[in-house]
Structure formats: C-alpha cells, structure tokens
Amino acid sequence: METISEPKLLQTLRGHRGEVTCVDAFGAWLVTGSGDRTLRLWRWVIGSGWEELATARGAHRYGVTGVRWSDSGALLASSGVDGVVRVWSGRSLASRRTLAAPNATAARALCWAGGGRLVAGHDDGALCVWLVPRGDLIARLVAHQGSLQAISIPARRTLLLTACTEGVLKVFDLIEICKSGLTGDDRPTPAPLTWIDSAHDLGVLCADAAEDSCLAATGGHDALIRVWRAVPGEEGRRAGGMEAAGVLEGHAAAVTALRWAHGGGEADELLASSSLDRTARLWAPASEACLHVVHAHPRYLTCIALSYDLQYMVTGSNDKSVRMWSLSRLTLDDDLDPSCPTLMHFGLGDLEGIEPVASDELDLETENEQGLEAEGGRACRVWRDTEAHTGAINCITTHGDLLATASSDGLVKIFRWCEPGPEAGAAGELRVEHVLEAHRYPALAVEFGAGGALLLSAGLDGYAALWDVQVGCQLRALSVPAGAGAEGEAGGGGVRGARVSPHRPPLLLLATDDGLAPLWSLADQDPKPAQLIHVYGGHAEAVTCCAWSRDGRLLATGAASGELRLHAPPPAPRTLHHEPHAHDLGVQSCDFSSSVSMLDLSSSEDSYLLATGGCDSLIKLWIIVLDQDMAGDRASVRLMRQFEAHGGGVTCVRWGSDESSALLASAGADRWARVWRAGGAGGVRASCAVPAAGAAARGALAAALLGRALLAVGSLGGELALWRLAPDDDALDDDEGAAPRFWGEAGVARWLREYVTRPGESHTEPRELEKRLIQRVRVAAVTGTSLLDDSIEDLLDKLGYGKNEEDEDHPEKEDEDEKATIRERLVDEIKWLRRDPPPPLLAGRAPHALLCPLSHRLLREPARAADGFSYERANIHEWFVAAEGAVSPVSGRRLTNTRVMPNYALRNALRDFLQEHGHWLQ
C-alpha cells in the first residue's frame, strides 16, 4: 500500500468505434471490449506501451458487456448483449468455446470460479455455470427477478455473491450451485446463505471479490460502495454467508465497476472504482479511506482494471478511449513481463517419465489452415453448403455415412459423408448422391429404413413416398384416404412426420394434420401402393411427430394439442398410454433412445427412454416401462428430466444412432443447435451449442448426429452445415486441474495416489494400499470439500487411520511404523491443502523456478508436463484448452499427451520457501 503513488497518465488507447464497455489486464496483456461488438487484444512493448495484437470483429452479435482473464492468462472470457459467453485464447483471440445457454437474455456479469468453471449472469436474473474444458452448461437457475448485473466469488472461492438491478444481494454456496443442475430438473434449488433486499438503492451495477481473502464489494446507482466480509459457517462450512463490513462514500454518481488488488491481508487490500461522475478512485477498504481521486476521462467511466502487482491501472470510458495510469514508477521504457529464463523451469527434480517431444512437429496450426472453423462449445465446422436448398431444411436423418434432408422447396437430397483424405480434403466432404423431386409442397419429414436401403419422405401435399437409396427411384406412394380413421375421421391432410420401423419387412408410420397416425405395411412385394393396416386416432389436433422404439415394440405420437400417446404395433395395435399435457402449446418432435443403461437407472428389456421437444422451449425425458403383468395393455410413464433447451420452441430432438450413445441433438427457434449429454443418475448437461447456418436472424429447424463425431444442422434459410464434435469426450476428467473444493471421488483418489501412497517407501504394496484407501473414500463419501472443511481427526477415522482405528477389512494389521507414516503423511497433505495462500507480492522474493512460466506467479501445485517443464497444475490444463490440444507453452511443439505429474522436488522447494517466509500452514 505504501508503494502506491499518485496515478499518472501513461498512455491513451483508441480504436473502438463505440463506448468502451469492459477492460481487463494480465501483466503485459490487455483486452478491451466495446459496444461496437469488437474485442481488442493489446501487448506491452518496451518503449511504445500498448500495441494492438489482435482484433475479434463481431465477437458478439451485439455489444460486448464484459471480459475477464482466467487465472493462468491462457484463456479469457467475454459476454455480450446476445446472451452468449465466449472463451478465447489469451494469446491470439482465437475462439475456443461458444457457450450459449438456452433462451438466454443479455449476459451482464462474468466471473471465473476456478477449476475450469465460468459463471455468467443474465438480464432475466438467470445464473449459468459452465464447465469450460467440456463446453458444458452444468448449472442454470433463476437467482433474481431483476437483471443480474453483479457476480463475484469471495471467501477463497467458496461462496458465490450475486446482485441485481432491484438491489437484492444473495450469497450462495458455490459448490451447491455447481451441482444444482439445469432449470426444470427435479433437484432442489440451493437456498441462499445470505439474502439482503436493499443492498443498494436503485439497484446494483457491479461487484468484485478479493481473490484469496474473505472480502467482496458491490457498487450501485446510489453512488456507494459497500464492503462485505464472509462469516464462519456451521456444520463444517468454511464460510456461511456474508455480512456488511463498511461503506465507501465519495462518488457523486453511480459506481460502474470495481476491482480488487490482492495484498497479504485485509489491511493491505486495495480497491479501485469507476463511476458515471467521470472519476476513478483508489480505496483502502480496511480504513474506509479514499487514497486517490483520478479525473480520468472527459465523459463517464464504464470499466476499470488493476494489474496484479499494482504497477498500473486501466480505465475505459464512454469517450471510446482506454487510458493507462502508472501507480508506481512505471514508464513506457519499463518491461511488464518479468525476465523468464525458461530453462529454470525445466527438469527441476524428477526427470523420470518425461514424454519425448516429437521433433518433426511444427507449431500448432490454426483452424483456418486446417480448414476448420471453431465456433461451437467443443465443435468445429468442417463443411458448409449455403445453397443446399432454396427453402427451409425441415428434417435431417442419418444412417452410417448417409445423410438425407427434407426441405420446403419440395426436394429431398441424399448425401454421403467422405472422411478427410486425399479426395475429400483435410476436413472431409458431404457429397450429393441423389436429388429427389419428392413433393409438390414443402417436404417436412425424411427417415432411413431397412439398414439404409430405403428412404421415407413426407410433405404438406398429403403424400409420403418410399425411395430406393441406391438408385434414387420411387418405390411406393402413400396417402391417407378420407374416412380412414377408426371413427371416420377425415384423411388426406398434410404429413408432418414419417418413421420407418425396425421390423422385417418394415412398417411405415406417418403423422398427419388430420390428427391421424396411419400405419402401412410393406409385406406385399407388389409395387402397388402399400397396405394400410391401422390408423391410430383420437388426437385432438394435428399429429406433429412420431417415433419408433429401437426394437419396434413401442411407438409414440405427439400432437399440436400438447398430448403424447404411446401405442402398441400390430398384431394387436392399440393405445397404451395417453399423456394429455406433455408440453404446453404443442409437441414438435420426439425420438426414442437405444437404451436407458447410460443413465445408471434400473432398467430391463421393457424399459425405454423417450425425448420430446415442445413449443414451451422444453426438452423432456420420459422413462417408459411396458407392463407385462397386464398382457401389454398398459405402459407406465415417468417424467425423468425436463430442462429449458431453446428459446421460442424446440423444433427437433434426435438421439445419436450409436447404440451406446448418450448424445441428444436438438434444434430450435433461438438460432442454435445443441448437443446434450445424458449422464449418471439421469443427469443431463448441455455439451455444446453451435449457431444456425445462414443469416443471423434465421433459426435452426433440424439437427441430427452423423455417427458419434459429426453434428448436422439445417437452417430456415436452406443452409446445411456439419460440425465435428470433440473426440473422446468421456475421457475428460472434470477433477483434473480443478481446485480441491471441486473434487469428487476421482479427484480425492488422484490426490491419495499422487501425494499419499506413491511418494516414499512402504512395506505394503502401494496399489493394495491405494485400493483400500479409495474404497474407504467411496464408502465415506469423502470429497474435496470434506478434505478442506471436516476436522482432521474425523477424516483420519473415515480413511482408516484414526488413533484407535482397526482395519476390519484387512486381517493382517499394517506395521505400526508404516501406519504411523501414512497417518503423518495424510495429516501433512491435508494441512497443505488448507494452507493460507501466500501474499501475491511474495512472488517477487521467490527463486524464478518457483514461478509458473505461464502466469509468472508463485506456484501452488507444481506439475510437470510432457515437455519437461513444470507449471501450475491448473494453469497448464487451461493452456491445453487454449491451444486445443497437447502443445508446449514454451516451445510451441506438439506433445505426445496432455498428462501432467506432480514435481515432488519442486514442491518440496516451494514448501521450504514458504516456511522460511512464514506462509506455510495454518
């Protein structure tokens, strides 16, 4: 605090054509965002100051509202009025993730929560939590009635503070929020630990929290800054909410932005603020004193940032400029990047197990050089035809490498996917096999059958047609005659859905505007019209969709009235179940999954999983069990999950064709196509979102998965695009690189292996010891939160190393010396996890080898990557996301893998350094 001098203007940056709305700094890197929809990346150059390195024009469809660097500086996130959050490479502004929440309004607040989690607040009061490495939306809840303008993560990232334009402030347990799931799930909504209705008169505009302390601050329209302090929690919680800790008065108008600088304790904390009164202020919150007032711009200020080492401050304004202020003796001739002899980060300590670097590999190629466009959450667009059809693409179906589309131009097209190669190019190619003039009016449905040999299409002309896929000729034409229904209902209306059963010969099911679902048989080999064998009636309005189960024992129909019906096929066709209010305003699409085993639910041969999408913006997952005790006369139906999927309605839902696939594709009127991943215990996560092809104002009408790797998306404008999904998604470990508080069973097990059972010598076989310890972790449900908050003696008891613990599962008692060694190691490692973080300025005294080469900050958990260099464990995993793979941050060469291992020698050196300076254990 004593080093802070009167701020001096060093440089003014211009380039944005609109108001500068957000700014953030990370050492020698600066990023700015504007209402002109652009992001600009700046790099510090000695003698010149900030020079523009990259520009992302059209970073968001509308204005940019926020931007924040991650802890490593490898990634940065931006939010926009379009409701989308995007993650970029912090070194090139290359897009890495597009995070589009369903029905999202403008995103106004943004905050990294650690462990790859990113939190965003929206105008409708919704709070979204994203797992960035996967691109998954893991939690969404409506936390406020007003616009959620302020988010911060105080108390060492154990709490989540939110505040809105109605002046309401809430504080939640961060872990509970991350585990709360999506809107519409039947999981309980986390209750706030603190709820204050009048935190600021006229509403809250901004918030920020000290990184490693218990303080946070909010600013609002009342021109006040309120400081909040975390209070101790009950029942083992480290923090149980927040209480008022002071008020900072001085601004003459609304406070627009806040930013903490992190000292070694509350007395050393520094807070910067910007305001509509055209000033920036520096505060000492501990004494509630204003240290400096800076008349920063001729127009009002919108944003502010502080450097980590308190060398400079940056302000942004409505005058379209960004200004940099020196807070010390910094000049344009100084360097903001510390001198980094990279060899000091190589091979300190344990060199065994370093993976070789392929010397013939060049630097990572860009997406454009590979012919790919990275726009989705974890997807790259590999193929695109802007004129696939002259009308809307209403339906897409796939089988193997075949893909077919039905369009409002009346055409049906059959494509074949050619994998990347000499003939198909580096990205692959979708080639047209047949163009079928199928219908006089819009073609609305298309479906492969008979192992891809047949194609069924249907349209508004009231006909369905059966095609030979190999030669592209029509085999049969189907139409529903008048009076075909069981009670004389009219026939002959438009056909909106068409599905082929897995039977041999197949049955053809149609969904018509007349409220009928006729069923046709192909048993007759005569090329005349197929035989109409049954008509499922009783629907109040038009039947809009239909689907077969994968074994052909069950079929479903959905109607514009919102009803869902389940039917039995011949030889005894009948209705088994009627759900009159499945979706408000109508069911638009339905599809059966191949199995329910992927959900870890009790299932049998008589269990089915059905997904439905409706005009109410919801996707619903239904568990259906055929009742054999009633001779198949009924089916029990249970709504397992429902979640908001697309604003304006869900136009399409399709499960992956792979029998073990847990992926569900959907499209909607909100201009996005999404891929959802079904997980254990019925959980569902939004895995990725890709924008609809064509003009920004046009929606996505159809989506389907081509194999397990490709997503096909058709738009209202007739454009067709293929996106390649990230491979080996199941191989990602959500606990790897995450902060201990986010650890589940896998994270705790890894911690035991790496720091408790493997280091040192033991008379017991390490893997046998690991097996017993991990089993105890599983039985006692020990999580990362438990390691941080539970008493050490309770933890030792749960792990079988209490003072009077006897191992009943292991008849041969461990050697007492060995048991004492493991117990001592457990206590030592638990205390290491709970240690107070060292003050940031301590990095200036540390040997260079104890700094992370990515962030130049003091290491906390040093880990060695395959390039032989050691990094902060969380930072190197963020870098792999930024680089889109195993690439060395130091050399730029490709690595053989993304695995990292603890560097025990470097860790011991870090312990010695912290102990020497009095900042080791509590």
From TrEMBL:
Keywords: Repeat, WD repeat. The keyword Repeat applies. InterPro entries: Ubox_domain, WD40/YVTN_repeat-like_dom_sf, WD40_PAC1, WD40_repeat_CS, WD40_repeat_dom_sf, WD40_rpt, Znf_RING/FYVE/PHD. The keyword Aminoacyl-tRNA synthetase does not apply. WD repeats lie at residues 13-42, 57-98, 248-283, 294-328, 436-477, 536-566, 643-676. Gene3D superfamilies: YVTN repeat-like/Quinoprotein amine dehydrogenase (2.130.10.10), Zinc/RING finger domain, C3HC4 (zinc finger) (3.30.40.10). SUPFAM superfamilies: RING/U-box, WD40 repeat-like. It comes from the Eukaryota. Residues 845-920 form the U-box domain. This is WD repeat, SAM and U-box domain-containing protein 1-like isoform X3. It comes from Galleria mellonella.
